[in-house]
TrEMBL record:
InterPro entries: 7tm6_olfct_rcpt (IPR004117). This is Odorant receptor. It comes from Campoletis chlorideae. The lineage of its organism: Eukaryota, Metazoa, Ecdysozoa, Arthropoda, Hexapoda. One of its GO terms (biological process) is signal transduction. The keyword Lipid biosynthesis does not apply. One of its GO terms (cellular component) is plasma membrane. Keywords: Cell membrane, Membrane, Olfaction, Receptor, Sensory transduction, Transducer, Transmembrane, Transmembrane helix. It comes from the Eukaryota. It is a multi-pass membrane protein. One of its GO terms (molecular function) is olfactory receptor activity. The chain crosses the membrane at residues 35-55, 123-147, 174-196. It is found in: Cell membrane. The keyword RNA-binding does not apply.
Length: 393
């Protein structure tokens, strides 16, 4: 199956190709696209950082600059992380294509399709939510300019900007150039975040599908035990389950290696991202507190908070899925009726039991597991930070 043209993966592949992050693109075109995208995002970060330094001491302006800068820095970290791990990303993609090509059993393909479709739907929902939030985020500042044309007043309404910036030019004279620059930078930021997160979820979802296939095969093997003819000392040539269990062991080892490879690609960026996410949620809540009564600004900030929470949830969800499937496989091993296998088959079951003693997980640089439990803990921590910041303001 051609990964980039597959029904399950083509949307992810196209946006990655646009951003120059697709592992099978020409390296020259990759570098050119990445250079201009990073240059654009960094230029937007720069004008906001300048505004922060120029307005040092003005807490409201500093907070307003910090939230978009945090998202843009997150996008840059994600993008650079992909560039650094491009060879690993290609290895994972090769692994996925090889799995689709080698699997022949229709039941196994059905399981893999189920997980791939679930990953596709979740990625599409994530993209729609973030891009929908982006549209709202971009449109609200343009409302005064639109109303000046559609419903003009004697005095023009005051123009609004996407966020605070400093270009050292007349802002009114260069209004549309500033809007164009900040909007392009923001769109590229969200495109980067969506593409990397969707890729991560797709990879983990594939590993979950492979794990579900191993679980299903193990359950089928255990379900075919003939207790009437049970013989723990059956000769090797008559042991019908030995090769099947060996295959289960090998396949589980392959899934474990794949999960470790995925973690090695994304764990470093995940740590920075989680720290930034907690700070961003806290600071944006504080920003909401400062904008009470300014309903247009409040609406944008509330929408930003929902998008940030969904972003955090989406990054935790794949890790929880892997834990769930790993736990299901562990239960399948323990309830496999191992006492109905031969002694040599029991040795293989022991190997699997030892391997499943701890569920497969994706961690943030070995410090923090990506799971729903830790998602709740991060929200609690963010609210605690917000309480502290609000009391100090």
């Amino acid at each position: 199956m051609e990964f980039a043209e597959s029904h399950y993966y083509r949307h992810n592949a196209r946006i990655l190709i646009f951003l120059g992050q697709w592992p099978y693109q020409s390296s020259m075109w990759n570098r050119i696209r990445q250079f201009f995208i990073h240059l654009t995002i960094f230029s937007v970060i720069s004008v906001q950082m300048i505004k922060m330094f120029v307005s040092w001491g003005n807490v409201d302006i500093m907070i307003e600059c910090f939230t978009p800068v945090g998202v843009q820095v997150t996008a840059v970290i994600k993008s650079i992380n992909l560039m650094i791990n491009q060879s690993k990303i290609r290895s994972i993609t090769d692994h996925m294509q090889a799995d689709w090509a080698t699997l022949k059993d229709e039941n196994e393909l059905t399981i893999l399709r189920k997980f791939a479709e679930e990953g596709r739907k979740m990625s599409v929902a994530y993209a729609f939510f973030l891009f929908g939030s982006l549209v709202i985020y971009l449109l609200v500042p343009l409302i005064p300019s639109i109303l000046n044309v559609v419903l003009p007043l004697n005095d023009s309404r005051q123009r609004a900007y996407l966020y605070e910036t400093e270009y050292f030019v007349d802002r009114e004279a260069y209004f549309w150039w500033i809007v164009l620059h900040t909007y392009i930078g923001t769109i590229l930021t969200i495109c980067t975040v969506v593409s990397v997160d969707a890729m991560f979820a797709t990879y983990v979802q594939h590993a979950c599908g492979l794990l579900a296939i191993v679980s299903d095969n193990l359950e089928k093997t255990a379900g075919s035990i003939n207790w009437a003819k049970f013989d723990p000392d059956v000769p090797l040539e008559e042991d019908e389950f030995y090769e099947q269990l060996k295959t289960c062991v090998r396949n589980h080892q392959e899934v474990t290696k794949l999960a470790i490879l995925i973690e090695s690609c994304f764990s470093s960026a995940a740590l920075f991202q989680m720290v930034l996410d907690m700070v961003l949620v806290s600071v944006s809540l504080l920003q909401l507190l400062t904008k009470l009564g300014q309903y247009d600004q409040m609406y944008r900030i509330i929408q930003f908070n929902f998008a940030q929470l969904f972003h955090l949830f989406f990054n935790m969800w794949p890790g929880q899925k892997l834990i769930n499937e790993s736990t299901i496989f562990s239960e399948a091993v323990y309830y496999s009726g191992w006492h109905g296998f031969s002694f040599r088959c029991r040795s293989l079951i022991k190997i699997i039991m030892m391997a499943t003693a701890r569920p497969l997980t994706i961690s943030a640089f070995k410090f923090y597991e990506l799971s729903m439990e830790n998602f709740g803990a991060m929200l609690q921590t963010s609210l605690s930070y917000f309480t502290v910041l609000a009391s100090l303001r």
